[in-house]
Each structure stands twice: as C-alpha cells, then as structure tokens.
C-alpha cells in the first residue's frame, strides 16, 4: 500500500491508552530501553506515526508511543521483565515480538521491522504510467489524476473523457462501458443537481483521484446498472503550514483556479480549500426532422448558443487527534453553481421539392443558479484488531431553473412561454461501519446506512400566446435504509470477498391541488444485493479475478415529475410517475499484469442482464410542432463486452498508454419502436490513446486522442466521433511550480446522432467550440506531504 497518509495512533489491544501511560515510563526501577525502525514491507519506505506498545505477561500496558517521521521509535525506562512488543498500523497486519529486559540486556535493538499490508487491503498498488496511479483493489479501481497534465485548467468532465471505459457526451452525459445508467458521486455523496452539468463546471485541478467501481461490494450503494464513478476532491494535509494553488485561463473567457491550505500543530490539523471556474462557450447545433407522412413538411433548424457556466466552493475544517485511538474530522462547505445560456433559433419548413414554405425565428434563454451548504462530521475509533467509523452528512440547498422562449415578429422579440422552477432540498445520510480482523488471513465488515431526501419544486408555467398560466408545487420525499456485511479471506495467493446488502426504500411525490390534474405516486420496495469477488495472483506479475453483483437503477426525482419542462421552443421534457426501479445482474472476469516497469495491462470481460430498464423515449406532438421526451420502463437488455487498457514505456523519455472498449447491447421490448433501430447493430466500440514525450529535463509533451465508433441504443444511433488534445508542461522554480499550455479539441468531429421515433426521424449535429487554448500555472509550497488519516467512509462532497 502506497502510504502518503498520517495515521495518528492506533489501539494496540483493547483498553490500551497512551494518554494514561507516559511514553518514557515512570517506574522507579526502570533500567532498560527498546528501540528500532518500522518500514513498509513492499515499498521499503519508513512508516511514521505507527503505534508501538509494550505489554506485560498479563497483557497490561507498560508503555508505548508512536514512530517518528523516519520510522524510528524508542521505549525508555522499561523495568526488568518479559514483555510483548506490539506493533500495529491501520491497513497492516499486527506484529508481535517477545522481548526481555534484564541486567545483561538492558538495551534491546529490535532492528528493522517490516509491516505487511493486511488482508483488509487484499491488493497491491499498481502504477500505470507516470501521470496516473491505478490501484487495483478487489472491488474497485482507483485512478490518480492529481498529477495528470491534462488536469490543469480543464473541467472534471474533460478528465473523465480521457479515462478507460468512460465516455462523456456533448451534453455532459456520462456513460460507463457504454451505459448511461451509472452512479456518479462527488466525495462519496450524491448530487441533487444535474451531475453532468456540474462536472462541466467543476475544475479538474480540485480532483485528487477517481474511483471506478464496476462491480461494487456490499459496502457500496447498489445504484447504477453499469457501476459507480466516485470523484474524490483534494484533501491536503501537510505538516506545518503548506499549500498549493493553480491559476488557469483559456480562450473565449475561460477561467478557473484552486487553492488548498493546511496547517498542522499538536493534535489539530486545520485545512481550507477554495476553487472556482467561470467559462464561456459558443456552440452550434443543427436539427433536421423528417416524417413518414408525406403531407407533413420536414423541418430544419439551426441553433447558435452562447453559454456561461461557473462553479465556486469554499471549504474549511479540522481534524482532532484526541488520542492514539480516536480521530474526529469536521468540515463545512459553501458552494454555488450557475449555467446561463442564450440561443438563437432559425427554423425552416421545407416541402418535398426542397422549397422553403415558411420560416420562424425564435430565441431561448436559460437562467440556472444553485447554491447551498454541506456539513460533515466523521469519527473513527480504533479497536483491538478492528475499527469503528461513524459518518454524518447533511446537504441543504436551493436552485432556480428558468427557461423562457420568444419569437421574432418583424424587428421585435415577442415572449412565447416561460417556465419558472424554484427548488429547495435537504439531503442527509448517516453511516456506521465496523470491521474486525479475525486473524492474519480473514476479516469481516458490517454496517448500516440511512439516507433521506426531502425536496420541493415550485413551478410556474406561463404561455404568453394563450395568456394563461399554471402554478403548482411538487413535493418529493425518499428514504433508503440499508444494512450490509462482508467476509474477506486470504488463502495463499487467493483473495475472496463475499457480501450481502439488504435495503428498504420509500419514494413519494405529488402535484398539489392547483395542478390541472392531481397526480401522486408512492413507490415502496425491498431488495437484496449479493456480491462476490475472487482474485488469484499468478506469479509476481499477474492477477486474475472474477466478480458478481446485483444492482439497481432508481428513477430520480425529475424523471418522476409529471409536468412539462420546455428546454427550447421545439422540445419538451415530461416525467413519468409510473416508473419502477430497474435491476441488473453483473458478472466480470478481469486480468491485471504488471511488468518490470515498462509494461502493464488491465483487461476485463463482462456481462450484464437488466430487467425493466429505464430509457428516454421521444415522440412528436403534431398540434404544437414539438418533440416530447419522456421516460419509460422498457423490457430487458443484455450487455456483454471486453475492455483493455495498457501502458508501455518504450524509452526513458517516451511512453504510451491506450484503451479499447468493445461491447454488445441488445434490447428486447414488446414495442419494437423503442428498441435499437432495424438498421442499427448491437456492436459498439471506442478507443483512446495517450503518448507522452520528455525531450529534456523539466519539459513534457502529451498528445491524447479519442475515437468512438457508431453507438446504438434505444431509438437512436450516434455516428462515429473523434477528438484530439495537446498539452505541454514546463517545470520551474526548482520543480515546485509548472507552466502548462494545452489545446483542447485540436481535432474534433462534433456529435451527430439520429433519433427514430414513431412516424418521424430527427438528425442532430452538435458542434462544441473548438479548438480551445488554455494556459495554467501551478505552485506548491511547504513541507513534505503527509495526508490526513485515511477514512473508509467518504466525506465532504455531495451537492
């Protein structure tokens, strides 16, 4: 396990307390001393703040302390006698030695002690390339992006789009292994805003790592049919006063920055962070709608959109190391998000002879603004051969979404309609997790998680043409209670983890009495989610794995809203309160190979069978000449695929890494119009490649390319797309700072897709602003990075 974290104390045996026994001892007949150094067995690096204790023959504490930064320790003024020397550190197997102090051996040099990662870790850290650190755990893959060149100045969405198995659409939608039904978390917490839009505004400089969990164990929420993507923000914790900051600027008014400060003194660790972004984008879109009925003219529309999006966050908190067994972390975060846009639409109705019959000019504005606070408190108690952790999180916020449309009459813009939506919510979660090491080869874990969401949406729909309006409210509430347990076992080179999670859930919502029709819904269900993970190490370089999990996709609050929301003059979205959860059974075979520093390979073959799948469904409303987007439970789907990623260091100054994803999707539904179009193929694939060259010390060039072949899903086909980015980095100020220059979308195809509806087709060509030029400056100051104490329950996020 790569250690960059301060662990301030760990209980040696139940009842041990260093606060009651002075480090130097106070016995009047003390004559001896015991000293040595503690190292990590795999990395050979010294371990600081390791608990070292001395117990007598009755297992009573004599003295104890913590190792220094160089891993050294000394227990002085020890009385003559026989003792148990106990060395224990979180994430490592406990070590015990028998020692004796007498007149002949009053000073004992234990020498170098090497601690081995415990069964709780079950996996080594594997390094893939110099810019990404991949940790292959038994139930997840962790990708470190904090040092990636592409991170400086870009958004989190752009970072995700460079990673294997993940693709981000032009609208910000995120898919994992080809499926948009993925659970995306921020610091382990869900967002109450559109996560795709949020990540397009969140600066990547604030991201430490990204966890990709395709078959989560029972400890994790089972949401997301294709898995979980957990985005972990930076949590600096440096000894003394330390910090780092980034400043970034891009073409066409794109700015972002990050600042992290930390100060550690005695038993306290204070931290503060802030990051912001403010971007402007000029994008274009073309839409052509044709009909099977020859009596209906086809419609062609162009859209020129100017969008301004931004995100800001201010976070502060502290850790308190009460003693060697108790640590409390408290943090408060204030955040604000915006996404405003102005679009001009030119529409043309065209007859069979390609002659323009009529024209229409419309304008759409979207004012979106949200803000709120996050509160988090986490306490960790180290027990004898175990650990107890409690996490309490609350998020409260409000947001305004106001799209309004107008049409041009002569030289004037006449209001057409307006949707005013004001939302407020409270989300809270409580989780407690207990794990116990049974012996050096086995452990178990159990826990409870409860979460509640209470939200209210006040809606005002105004139609200026017919001079009428609808005003109503949409209260919504959901509760989920879960209990889980897992057992881990290590048999030689085989690691096994089995688990079971049980959940009961309740969701309800309604439109109030002022609505045109009263619509209410209640969804109650209970579910079991088993999981199993097995990994077998072959030799020193290869690992094979097999895993299974059952998962769920719950309809979200907006998918259930039975009210029309107009995103532009020709498109309306309406929810479906009759949606039910979708379930999937997922199996995966994996292979990991770590060479001698030059080659590494990660491969997986997987299969998912999903029932009652939730998909977007498009239809056309002739009387108002708009397309309707809603959501429906279709039949079942079968997905199978393979993914391959590899890193190859050709020379000391030249390295490559790339990925290939190939998957098969088949959707079965009684309504064949909602499945994959007849001319489509169920086979989809994508590829990414990244090469990095270091022509001279301190100078690095990086080229990144992506290609997505034809993509097929219910009712739609997306045509092939490609893009390429270039980055140059120069280290300065004795490697404490760096200057980066990047070109995003140096080559870019845009996104083209065709939707096949009932009696009509829509072809859309979306072009994002390109190319985009960025320059950034990064600087770090202070002492050696130590990190805050590792916590198993993620904290601090969720918007």
From TrEMBL:
GO terms for molecular function: siderophore uptake transmembrane transporter activity. This is Outer membrane protein beta-barrel domain-containing protein. The keyword DNA-binding does not apply. It is a multi-pass membrane protein. Keywords: Cell outer membrane, Membrane, Signal, Transmembrane, Transmembrane beta strand, Transport. Residues 1-19 form the signal peptide. Pfam families: CarbopepD_reg_2 (PF13715), OMP_b-brl_3 (PF14905), Plug (PF07715). One of its GO terms (biological process) is siderophore transmembrane transport. It is found in: Cell outer membrane. Residues 148-228 form the TonB-dependent receptor plug domain. SUPFAM superfamilies: Carboxypeptidase regulatory domain-like, Porins. One of its GO terms (cellular component) is cell outer membrane. Residues 402-779 form the Outer membrane protein beta-barrel domain.
């Amino acid at each position: 396990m790569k250690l960059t974290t301060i662990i301030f104390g760990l209980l040696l045996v139940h009842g041990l307390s260093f606060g009651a026994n002075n480090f130097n001892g106070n016995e009047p007949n003390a004559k001896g001393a015991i000293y040595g150094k503690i190292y990590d067995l795999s990395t050979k690096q010294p371990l600081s703040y390791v608990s070292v204790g001395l117990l007598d023959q009755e297992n009573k504490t004599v003295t104890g302390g913590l190792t220094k930064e160089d891993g050294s320790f000394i227990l002085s003024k020890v009385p003559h006698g026989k003792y148990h020397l106990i060395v224990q550190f979180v994430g490592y197997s406990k070590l015990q030695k028998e020692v004796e102090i007498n007149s002949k051996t009053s000073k004992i040099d234990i020498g170098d002690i090497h601690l081995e990662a415990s069964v709780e870790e079950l996996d080594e850290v594997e390094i893939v390339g110099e810019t990404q650190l991949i940790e292959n755990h038994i139930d997840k893959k962790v990708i470190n992006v904090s040092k990636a060149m592409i991170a400086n100045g870009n958004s989190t969405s752009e970072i995700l789009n460079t990673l294997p198995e993940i693709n981000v659409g032009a609208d910000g939608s995120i898919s994992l292994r080809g499926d948009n039904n993925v659970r995306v978390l921020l610091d382990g917490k869900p967002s109450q805003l559109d996560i795709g839009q949020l990540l397009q505004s969140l600066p990547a400089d604030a991201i430490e790592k990204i966890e990709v969990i395709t078959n989560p164990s029972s400890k994790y929420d089972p949401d997301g049919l294709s898995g979980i993507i957990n985005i972990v923000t930076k949590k600096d914790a440096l000894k003394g006063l330390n910090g780092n900051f980034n400043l970034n600027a891009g073409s066409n008014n794109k700015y972002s920055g990050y600042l992290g400060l930390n100060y550690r003194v005695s038993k306290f660790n204070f931290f503060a962070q802030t990051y912001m972004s403010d971007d402007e984008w000029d994008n274009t879109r073309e839409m052509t709608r044709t009909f099977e009925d020859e009596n209906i003219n086809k419609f062609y529309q162009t859209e020129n959109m100017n969008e301004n999006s931004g995100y800001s966050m201010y976070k502060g908190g502290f850790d308190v190391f009460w003693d060697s067994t108790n640590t409390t972390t408290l943090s408060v975060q204030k955040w604000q998000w915006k996404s405003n846009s102005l679009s001009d639409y030119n529409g043309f109705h065209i007859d069979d002879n390609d002659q323009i019959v009529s024209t229409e000019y419309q304008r759409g504005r979207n004012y979106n603004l949200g803000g709120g606070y996050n509160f988090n408190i986490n306490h960790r108690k180290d027990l004898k051969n175990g650990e107890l952790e409690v996490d309490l999180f609350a998020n409260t916020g409000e947001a305004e979404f106001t799209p309004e449309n107008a049409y041009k009459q002569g030289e004037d813009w006449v209001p057409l309609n307006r949707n005013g939506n004001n939302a407020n919510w409270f989300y809270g979660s409580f989780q407690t997790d207990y794990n116990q090491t049974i012996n050096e080869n086995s452990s178990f874990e159990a826990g409870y998680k409860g979460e509640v969401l209470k939200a209210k949406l006040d809606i005002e729909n105004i139609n200026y043409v017919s001079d009428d309006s609808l005003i109503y409210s949409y209260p919504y509430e959901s509760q989920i209670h879960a209990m889980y347990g897992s057992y881990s076992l290590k048999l030689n080179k085989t690691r096994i983890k089995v688990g079971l999670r049980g959940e009961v859930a309740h969701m309800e919502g309604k439109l109030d009495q002022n609505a045109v029709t009263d619509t209410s819904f209640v969804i109650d269900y209970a579910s079991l989610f088993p999981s199993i993970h097995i990994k077998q190490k072959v030799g020193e370089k290869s690992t094979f794995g097999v895993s299974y999990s059952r998962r769920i996709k719950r309809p979200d609050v907006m998918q259930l809203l039975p009210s029309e929301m107009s995103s532009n003059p020709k498109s309306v979205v309406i929810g479906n309160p009759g949606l039910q959860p979708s379930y999937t059974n997922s199996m995966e075979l994996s292979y990991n190979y770590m060479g001698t520093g030059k080659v590494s390979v990660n491969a997986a073959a997987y299969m998912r069978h999903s029932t009652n799948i939730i998909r977007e469904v498009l239809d056309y409303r002739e009387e108002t000449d708009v397309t309707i987007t809603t959501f429906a439970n279709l039949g079942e789907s079968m997905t199978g695929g393979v993914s391959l990623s590899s890193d190859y260091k050709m020379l000391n100054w030249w390295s490559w890494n790339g990925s290939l994803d190939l998957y098969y999707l088949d959707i079965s539904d009684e309504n064949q119009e909602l499945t994959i179009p007849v001319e489509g193929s169920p086979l989809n694939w994508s590829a990414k490649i990244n090469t990095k060259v270091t022509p001279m010390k301190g100078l690095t060039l990086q080229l990144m390319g992506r290609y997505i072949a034809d993509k097929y899903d219910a009712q739609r086909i997306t045509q092939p797309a490609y893009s390429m980015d270039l980055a140059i980095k120069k280290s300065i100020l004795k490697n404490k700072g760096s200057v980066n220059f990047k070109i995003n979308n140096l080559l870019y195809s845009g996104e083209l897709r065709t939707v096949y509806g009932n009696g009509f087709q829509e072809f859309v060509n979306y072009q994002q602003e390109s190319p985009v030029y960025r320059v950034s400056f990064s600087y770090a100051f202070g002492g050696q990075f130590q990190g805050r104490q590792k916590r198993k329950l993620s904290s601090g996020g969720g918007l």
